[in-house]
Amino acid sequence: MMIVMKAGATQEQVDAVVRRVESVGARAHLSRGEEVTVIGALGDREHVARLGLEGHPGVDHVVPILKPYKLASSQLRHGERTVLDIGGRRIGGDAFALIAGPCTVETRDQTVATARSVRDAGASFFRGGAYKPRTSPYSFQGLGQEGLRLLAEAKAETGLPVVTELMDPRDLESVLEVADVIQVGARNMQNYTLLSEIGRSGCPALIKRGFSSTLEELLMAAEYVLKEGNESVLLCERGIRTFETAYRYTLDLMAVPVLKQLTHLPVIVDPSHAAGRRDLVTPLSLAAAAAGADGIIVEVHPQPDEAICDGPQALATDDFAAYADQVHRAAELAGKELSRV
Amino acid sequence: MMIVMKAGATQEQVDAVVRRVESVGARAHLSRGEEVTVIGALGDREHVARLGLEGHPGVDHVVPILKPYKLASSQLRHGERTVLDIGGRRIGGDAFALIAGPCTVETRDQTVATARSVRDAGASFFRGGAYKPRTSPYSFQGLGQEGLRLLAEAKAETGLPVVTELMDPRDLESVLEVADVIQVGARNMQNYTLLSEIGRSGCPALIKRGFSSTLEELLMAAEYVLKEGNESVLLCERGIRTFETAYRYTLDLMAVPVLKQLTHLPVIVDPSHAAGRRDLVTPLSLAAAAAGADGIIVEVHPQPDEAICDGPQALATDDFAAYADQVHRAAELAGKELSRV
Amino acid sequence: MMIVMKAGATQEQVDAVVRRVESVGARAHLSRGEEVTVIGALGDREHVARLGLEGHPGVDHVVPILKPYKLASSQLRHGERTVLDIGGRRIGGDAFALIAGPCTVETRDQTVATARSVRDAGASFFRGGAYKPRTSPYSFQGLGQEGLRLLAEAKAETGLPVVTELMDPRDLESVLEVADVIQVGARNMQNYTLLSEIGRSGCPALIKRGFSSTLEELLMAAEYVLKEGNESVLLCERGIRTFETAYRYTLDLMAVPVLKQLTHLPVIVDPSHAAGRRDLVTPLSLAAAAAGADGIIVEVHPQPDEAICDGPQALATDDFAAYADQVHRAAELAGKELSRV
Amino acid sequence: MMIVMKAGATQEQVDAVVRRVESVGARAHLSRGEEVTVIGALGDREHVARLGLEGHPGVDHVVPILKPYKLASSQLRHGERTVLDIGGRRIGGDAFALIAGPCTVETRDQTVATARSVRDAGASFFRGGAYKPRTSPYSFQGLGQEGLRLLAEAKAETGLPVVTELMDPRDLESVLEVADVIQVGARNMQNYTLLSEIGRSGCPALIKRGFSSTLEELLMAAEYVLKEGNESVLLCERGIRTFETAYRYTLDLMAVPVLKQLTHLPVIVDPSHAAGRRDLVTPLSLAAAAAGADGIIVEVHPQPDEAICDGPQALATDDFAAYADQVHRAAELAGKELSRV
Questions:
Q1: Cβ distance B341 to B158 under 8 Å?
Q2: A224 to chain B: which residues are within 8 Å by CB?
Q3: Which among B211, B219, B244 is the top mutation candidate for probing chain D, defined by the most D β-carbons within 10 Å of its own β-carbon?
Q4: What are D167-207's pLDDT values in tens digits?
Q5: Residues of chain B with C-beta less than 8 angstroms from the C-beta of C8
Q6: For chain C, where are the alpha helices, taking DSSP H only?
């Protein structure tokens, strides 16, 4: 951490900061410039974090130097990338995975038919929501337990590992009975209670970036899971909130190459929620794969126009094989192979 | 809801939309302009909400007309404002309330001393955190149960009603033993599980606006509480995330007059978290009160430099009486009275 | 335009709005719902634009229906795309163009060497700045007239058409002597004086999206040029300003497919300025091409570490051929061909 | 400037950075922490600015330490504030100024009547636009020269100094004939050509913050004027662009106290353009004055419903005296006096 003193800071103020730095067990290192003095606080990350010197007399501002995450950092593995193997499907490194399925589990037919279609077209995982975080309390909130049962049927039928969302820590046990990957939604990305519980469960976690969360905050959310000893974390970019009103969210594809520098964890992209419109899903998926994403999570429905939830953004199962083929070619351009069993 | 058709939409496409509108029990109303046709879908809000016509053939875009919230809407009370009476302190209407206390409950002395100081200086409520949502899993997470016990002591000692945060629905019962108002933090504003539970508890809720949530989303969060029959909801602006890096968050004071048009619920402001710096707390508090806020929630600490958490933004107890007096005068300018027992 | 009345609007207020609509020569069309009345104002765009009914008694809000741009609209050409032919290089439709060169023209050697390298590697246009808009008045502001002369030499030497920026309308004549395309920088996107002058000059314009401009504002900037009878306009996405601090700007690749729906004009992407870092330029370029961009404008320098301006984001001329080849393959994936003579 | 090296940076890379720092005439100062090495580059601001070490081998990132502005900096005057005296009206320090008038000059009657009203109610300056930057080329662009003539009449009639906008450097001479203060609009805040010309003219400049410009960029815009020897600069916050769609712009009142720490220049607020709605103008004006603004620039019109431009946000002249009185009291709360002759 670097403490930048004000131009007019006195020697007493500089000395007081140095004493404060040393009091937490860190070393202070002075650089006196022509206009300002900068004090480096060197030492253990946790000691330094306790300093809290903003607002201290004579201090202009404080610049953090070390990243606040450790276990998620690419330094931890000296540049080696995490490749997860979940139910025989690999994701990360050079393995690219397609995760596909409906926004919401609605009926046995819709669920199983979609799972079969996406498996046949080359998807590696099946996704479907039983618990749905909805902005309005008047909207459909998901089938809950019954939805989990339908996901289990789809899994038995197709062999595809299942990705599904958890919202309430009290539902963890029943979700664990069917989920191969537990999804944490964007709205819960900073629900630290939920993250810690999933960490302790040991089940792989797919963490969606909050729609206004920085990459650093996303990595800190991953850190909550990793800290419990659970090393299986997937990060997912799904669109951020900006000033632009021409689309629902702005898909941030710079997050893909930048996250891959910051962390060893696999990085996937959700083009469906960002766009909110089917016609944007293919170009955004190609762009995500070409940018080097480790996978894509996409919504598919047998009759999108009849979907209870988010139909306008779902691809039709009939179009999915052609879509998967194009995405595959874009991923190859970035040096990836489609992960299949 | 208005459905705007594309310029080249065919008669068949228009007819199909009309049939879809009528199929959910709404009435369709056509306006044909020179360039485009607009179809109004009139009827019950919940029927119309189920339409999902974005992406339908021939549809350009869909414009919602009715607000998605009902119980939070100012129309519900025909312009009359909600005035809450909590432990004898009024907030809302012409009653202005100061809610003050430390970010985190640390020790018995710190807690009780702060409570006494703020009560003597004219605060109406005491605030203090026992459970703290922290970006880093390595940061202090609050004293938990022990913190709740200290809050109970401060309340017994001063008679001030207590505002404290709930993060995990499994802690609801123990929080209810001491809290007069349960705070929902910005990061949990869309934790719908938590909101519904607080709604069912009947305890007054103070909901902080998520740092990237629209006013509409804040009102929908309130709707989750109100829908359970709990009419005691306070809304709190605490700074939003923007492109500006000169401050931690950008305090959005336009939210104050605009929320007061949209809803009958009281609207308060948290200047401490937006600023993150003590020297901005007073000008922002005066501005908030002059803009018509119904109250201010502010952090105070006996020795801010020693605070475990967020010390740089806390006012010193010694300065609090002068601060409260200035804020009071700004609130009077906006036609308010300070709420005292 | 739709005028949504307040829930409690009186018949008199509705009548007054109807009279106002009719007074500007538009037709009023009433839809009465259970809760609110909506008045459609149908008629000529310019009549309706003059209404200004926000804030009128009884009016809740006003919803525009027609896009405010006409000449830039994809409707104008009934879906046919504009393909520009500039100095024998095509851009738009299925023609993909690489525009490459240094941020700033520095010396004869640097300019001509870079132009030769990028031509040999398959670039279609040469870019280089003689006038540089710099945030700081203390930074290098470009070589001006001398820079234009060097660009003319590079053009004579390589045959590549030249793209260069204009900042001051008083420099138009000298810029026209060398420029095949005049660039309008992001900071000048709403400099309407400049846009109109370039429109009148008839020279093709490359308009960079302002870093906080909506797509609609970008299209309105294009409209200023088109309105003067100049049909040769290229739009350029170059990164927008968001809350994320991990990169300089956030490249908005959703703008590519969405602009291509809204307008017939070619859409290109500048990955260099968004990233500000060389290592992000390739993944972002591949993503842009895969998303369907009509071209890429990229910075290249013989010795990036010695560049006067923006060296850290420039590709080295030595690496450019491999880069161009990869981008070409991504553009093919989206159905494009590289534009060459 | 601090150069933070990557965790794995080699001794050769560190040495190369040190050599680079020394090559521009700055001193290098090493701090070796347990995880990373930080190199301070100490010396003249302009030397250091030329370093461009981002992307250099082994460099993780670069942290600027000194502010990039000098003449605008509060350090320049050691904390003393600039108080401008323009036509006998003071602004800055403890002098608070109301600048009022119509968005656009329309007719002689409207102009002179408004000027008289606002003068009688206590305004210190008269504002009015002759050149209007409009998003649409189809909108009214102002009366131009004729508008300037009407402003001159209003000034002759009332004695109020005039504030009016300049868009094109070629109009500078005619604007100087009537303007006491030249306004630079938000869209032109980074039109460096315009800023330099105004600087050279010596006429006081009122610079509006770009709707997505940081405070640092606003101060750099001021620096362009100050650098030409023109010390009369007013800064104006007028709302920034955020994700919130409930209002046109989000008025950023934190800018007021923060700018007053960063710069010695007066800081004023424009509540009219941020809100776009008359009913928000009063609460926002009171908030701005209570936050410590040095003045307010507000739109006033004799018949707002008939205004050619921005009528919905204009106060009526009839209501202006009551408004001015309230604002005055809020400014007093912040220790100011209304500036009158």
A1: no
A2: 137
A3: B244
A4: 999 999 999 999 999 999 999 999 999 999 999 999 999 99
A5: 75, 78
A6: 11-23, 45-49, 108-120, 145-158, 172-178, 192-201, 215-226, 255-262, 271-275, 278-290, 317-333
Contact by Cβ (8 Å): B267, B294: yes
Question: What pLDDT sits at residue C46?
Answer: 65
Q: Tell me phi and psi for residue D240, to 5 degrees.
A: -115, 165
Q: Cβ neighbours of residue A143 under 8 Å, at least 6 residues apart?
A: A104, A105, A106, A130, A150
Q: Is C102 in contact with C307 (CB distance < 8 Å)? A: yes
Cβ–Cβ below 8 Å for B253 and D256: no
Distance separating alpha carbons of residues C2 and C25, to the nearest angstrom: 16
Task: Report CB contact under 8 Å: B43, C63.
Answer: no
Estimate to the nearest angstrom the gap between the alpha carbon of D73 and the chain centroid: 14
Whether residue C240 and residue A258 make contact (CB cut-off 8 A), yes or no, is no
CB A251 within 8 A of CB C253: yes
Do the Cβ atoms of A96 and A102 come closer than 8 Å? no
A312–B52 C-beta distance less than 8 A: yes
Q: How many residues does chain A have?
A: 341
pLDDT tens digits along D191-202:
999 999 999 999
pLDDT at A341 over 60: no
* Chain A residue numbers touching D21 (CB-CB < 8 A): none
ipTM of the complex: 0.93
Q: What angle do CA B213, B217, B222 make, to 5 degrees?
A: 120
Interfacial A residues in 16-55 facing B (CB < 8 Å):
45-46, 49, 52-55
Where residue C282 falls (left for φ over 0; alpha for ψ -120 to 50; beta otherwise) is alpha
Q: Contact A168/B278, CB-based, under 8 Å?
A: no
CA gap B62, A210 in Å, rounded: 26
Tokens of C79: 């879906």
pLDDT of residue B199: 97
State which residue of chain D sits closest to C53, comparing Cα positions.
D312
Mean pLDDT over the full length of chain A: 92
Closest residue in A to D262 (Cα) is A60
From the candidates D32, D38, D69, D244, which should be mutated to test the interface with A, based on the most A CB atoms within 10 A? D38
Return the closest-CA partner of residue C247 out of D54, A288, A268, A263. Answer: D54
Residue A148, amino acid: L
Closest of B166, B235, B234, B236 to residue B201, by C-alpha: B166
Please give the model's pTM, rounded to 2 decimal places: 0.94
Q: Do residues D198 and D192 make contact, with C-beta atoms less than 8 angstroms apart? A: no
Distance in angstroms (rounded) separating the CA atoms of residues D163 and B142: 54
Check if B99 contacts D (Cβ < 8 Å).
no
Q: D187-211: string of b/e by CB count within 10 Å (b at 16+)?
A: bbbbbbbbbbbbbebebbbbbbbbb
Mutate to test the interface with B, among D244, D284, D329, D336 (most CBs of B within 10 A): D244
Do D211 and D240 meet the contact criterion of CB atoms below 8 Å apart?
A: yes
* Contact state of C217 with D276 under an 8 Å Cβ cutoff: no
Residue among B54, B192, B211 whose CB faces A277 most closely: B54
Tell me: pLDDT of A139 over 70: yes
Q: How far is CA D149 from CA A47, A106, D175, D176, D177, in A?
A: 67, 70, 10, 12, 9
Residue given tokens 């994701």 in the structure block: A91
With CA atoms as reference, report the closest residue to A337 among A81, A80, A90.
A90
280-299 in chain C: CB under 8 A from chain D: none
Give CB contacts under 8 A, 24+ apart, made by D140-144. D140/D104, D140/D308, D140/D309, D142/D104, D142/D105, D143/D104, D143/D105, D143/D106
CA distance B242 to B248: 9
Q: Which residues pair with A27 in a beta bridge?
A: A42
Q: How confident is the model at residue B277 (pLDDT cuts 50, 70, 90)?
A: confident
